[in-house]
Design a protein that fits this description.
With 610 residues, the protein is an alpha/beta fold. It is built from 26 helices and 19 strands.
């Protein structure tokens, strides 16, 4: 596909040099490029389509990399990549060795920080902004937040900090129809209607632009006019949360009007108070299927552009978890489900529809979710918190302080545990084993197939004490033969003294290894922690043990086993195979399993290498 304007953009400076008439054509080219690329590679579609004009305006009003522009989460930064010299590589996005699906400083000087998790943009941008002021470095920093990220508490901690004192720090709130606050009263409705009229914005921007051009006193007049306007508005309209926290509140403004956005960004830079610019965008804009169903097109796998249909996926662990909870809830009215803004992702859409009173989406607030679940449990309910492994990291303190210490029975269904694939370093679920097994009163299971997952979820409903964590991978199950899903561990006996110890998805690789070497003993951990004394005694009979796990080696099950075996005087050979002190980059899941030495061939090789 030929993109004449986009192909001419080698840096953000080229965006500034475009005629106003070329901007609409540029945005059309960007949208087409994003849709075609994501249809092949998968990725975040609706959020990126909604932020096209906004990003173009940012790069016209600011000067990256001198001005740091930070997109919260980063799932709306595809346009940013296209405008910062990465158009020629854009077809590689979310592939092994290709561009990241999020911001990444190792990839470009135009990406100030790494992103992937939610609600941290204001903190990072404000830190960069203050550093520039202290060191005298040129430029500013802008945080672009929205698409649910304002439900995360860190955002308000940052606003609370940044709203103090004199500065021209800027936060852009990309509101794609999410609810920020409810306007109340006739006057509020009238003012909102007036502010949303294009004529109102053109007049306001023109007046501010005129005042700023007046020598010597222009900036003073503009700020004075703004102060008077805000005072009057505050009397009749009442302050919103942003003005109450010390920010100039500008907007709402049409997020698909490049020139209006550019003007407002420039005006905000003239103020001596921090500004929050409220931008209204349409998530999925420019692609009818994404506009009509933005949730379904937030993160997608490869799809057919003509009919919007995603290529058929097999049943997933996420769906099985959600379906199992629905079945339990039908029989037990104490069963409830908690999610942190991931209803569809964690398979809870059906539960949310069928059991509205027992379903709780708390927003992007994993810390609150764990404490809230503990409160539900104290009230006699049976809460399940369904959460991605990489997002559970935010709630480590709450698992300790608010659940484990008091031995409160909450259930963590840890989705996307292990290697996740194309989302890359920020989303790999490789740390939950290490941090969960460091906490007393926590029991961890790692099912290998759907039946085992359903069994463990149902079994956990009757656990009366402690935190139960059930971790499972992204995607579907792999063939791994029959085993006792109710046992803490299973041994597929062989004739040798060599044993592979593994759990979760890697058990299927171990079974494949045994097909080639029938003498191998395959030990599958169903309950991966804590490990019983009886199990440890059985391990002592093997001369060679290789542990394979889809997690970080440091703090992993292999290290727990090594310590226990050493204390018991084990004299055999023990090898630990896991992700060793690194962050795993984007690639297809199985390719990463192979590259990290966790596949069938690596298992066989572990007994022949010194």
């Amino acid at each position: 596909m030929d993109y004449p304007i986009l192909n001419s953009i080698k840096s953000p400076r080229d965006v500034k040099n475009l005629d106003d008439d070329a901007l609409e054509a540029l945005c059309r080219e960007i949208r087409d490029c994003i849709i075609r690329t994501v249809s092949k590679n998968g990725g975040h579609l609706a959020s990126n389509l909604g932020a096209v004009e906004l990003t173009v305006a940012l790069h016209r009003a600011f000067s990256s990399p001198e001005d740091a522009i930070i997109f919260d989460v980063g799932h709306q930064c595809y346009t940013h990549k296209l405008l910062t010299g990465r158009f020629e590589k854009f077809s590689t996005i979310r592939t092994e060795g290709g561009l990241s699906g999020f911001m990444n400083p190792a990839e470009s000087e135009h990406d100030p920080v790494i992103t992937g998790h939610s609600s941290n943009s204001i903190s990072a941008a404000y830190g960069i902004y203050k550093a520039k002021r202290i060191t005298g470095e040129e430029g500013t920093a802008v945080a672009v937040i929205g698409d649910g990220a304002m439900t995360g508490g860190i955002a308000y901690e940052a606003l609370n900090n940044a709203g103090v004192g004199r500065s021209n720090f800027i936060v852009v709130l990309n509101d794609n129809k999410m609810s920020i606050s409810r306007n109340v009263g006739v006057m509020a409705r009238c003012l909102t209607k007036m502010r949303n009229k294009p004529k109102y914005h053109r007049f306001k921007f023109a007046l501010s632009s005129f005042l700023l051009k007046i020598p010597l006193i222009g900036k003073f007049l503009n700020n004075t006019l703004f102060t008077v306007k805000e005072t009057v508005k505050g009397i009749i309209y009442k302050n919103n949360i942003f003005t109450a926290m010390g920010f100039n509140y500008l907007g709402p403004v049409d997020g698909h009007d490049v020139l209006a956005l550019e003007s407002l960004f420039k005006i905000a830079q003239s103020y001596t108070r921090p500004s929050l610019i409220h931008v209204i965008t349409t998530k999925g804009k420019g692609y009818s299927y994404a506009e009509s169903s933005p949730k379904n097109y937030h993160g997608v796998s490869a799809f057919d552009i003509d009919d919007g249909a995603e290529f058929a996926d097999k049943p997933t662990f996420s769906k099985v978890a959600g379906d199992t909870l629905c079945e339990l809830a039908a029989k037990d009215n104490k069963i409830c489900a908690v999610t942190a803004a991931m209803t569809e992702g964690t398979g809870l859409a059906g539960f949310a529809k069928e059991y509205k009173q027992r379903f709780f989406d708390v927003g992007i607030a994993e810390q609150h979710a764990v404490i809230f679940a503990a409160g539900l449990a104290k009230g006699g309910l049976k809460p399940y918190f369904l959460v991605y492994s990489s997002f559970l990291q935010r709630a480590y303190d709450q698992i300790i302080h608010d659940a484990a210490i008091a031995n409160i029975p909450i259930r963590l269904l840890v989705d996307r545990a292990g290697i996740v694939g194309e989302d890359g370093v920020t989303h790999q679920g490789l740390f939950d084993v290490s941090f969960l097994t460091s906490i007393p009163n926590v029991t961890v299971y790692s099912p290998s197939n759907f039946a085992e997952l359903s069994y463990r979820i149902e079994e956990s409903a009757d656990i009366a004490n402690g935190v139960t964590a059930i971790r499972y991978p992204r995607g579907g199950e792999k063939p791994c033969g029959e085993f006792d899903i109710s046992a803490d561990y299973c041994i597929n006996e062989g004739s040798s003294k060599k044993a592979i110890v593994t759990y979760g998805r890697l058990y299927s690789e171990a079974c494949l290894a045994k097909q080639e070497d029938s003498g191998l003993n395959i030990i599958k951990l169903n309950k991966i922690y804590p490990l019983s004394d009886a199990f440890m005694e059985k391990l002592m009979r093997y001369d060679m043990i290789s542990v394979f796990e889809e997690s970080e080696k440091s703090g992993g099950i292999g290290e727990h086993l090594a310590a226990r075996l050493a204390n018991s005087g084990y004299k055999g050979a023990l090898k630990l195979h896991a992700v060793d002190n690194k962050f795993v980059p984007a690639a297809k899941v199985y390719d990463s399993i192979v590259s990290e030495g966790l596949d069938k061939n690596s298992m066989l090789k572990s007994f022949t290498e010194n």
